[in-house]
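Morning F.,

Quick status update on the modeling queue. The single chain you submitted on Monday has been processed. Sequence for confirmation:
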Amino acid sequence: ASAGYELLRFGRVIGPDKDRLPADKSANWQSVSFAAQQTGYVNLSDARIHKLSDADFPWFMGWTKVSEGAGALSDDGLCDAKVILDLLQEANSADAPKAGADQDRLAAYLRDHEDVRQKLRGLICEAPTEWDKSTNHKRFDRLVEVGEHYEGNPDGLQKFLDFVEGFQFWDKTGLPTKVWHFHPLRFVDQFKGCGWLDAREFALIYPDTYTRKNGRQIETAPHAVSDGLREKYRHIINRAMKKHLISLTPSRMSHFLGQGAEESRTLTWMNERRSEESCNEFYSGKNGNNLHGDGYRFRGRD
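Structure tokens below.
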């Protein structure tokens, strides 16, 4: 059942049950539009089908990768990629206001063109990091040219470079000097949908203490859960929530994790066993309507 669910959910079996599904049962034929008013069927589990996730930043989700390696950006730090220039050039079209500074006209144009804003937010540009001092002269020496800020003032440029170098640290990181730049709002929006819980967040859900209600009193006491026990189940629970769409919304995660914390007594009752005798007694109605203690008999179940 798990393999069949993964086949429908992901287009292929990704879990440990892959070998339990016969080859003749692993096909997943889906209707796909491949041209205007034309559809066909594709077996999504075929190895020749590329499966992409959000981590691949696919083009059909609005992402555009602009790499310096393809000749789009140069080492001088100027953002002169053609795909960017083409978008910004639209600001000089006939319907754009001509008065004011360039940045003011551009801002006015972008306010009225949501489609262009979304394209710019989807750009992922490879460019030299501004925190690397080794590229300073390539980027800033042009400022002494005619019409630039430090025209005829090389001493002023040097003072500026000395000031900038006081903030630069990239030579101490051991990282490549060219990095991928995301639009910050789009980057945050993308990773808000991750839903993966780290160790700190997991400890907030399954703390070292257990709280319960005893009559009208709320009791809190030390508990047997530990960092090692939490880490034992953290990846398993994270993967289960992704697989079964529990991490689709914060509300679904809250219900699942809250119920799971109670039923497992914060991970310390992780068994589903009940004695056959107690099961028979419960379902035969020998204990009538008295369900006192039923929670204990169902301990560990989610």
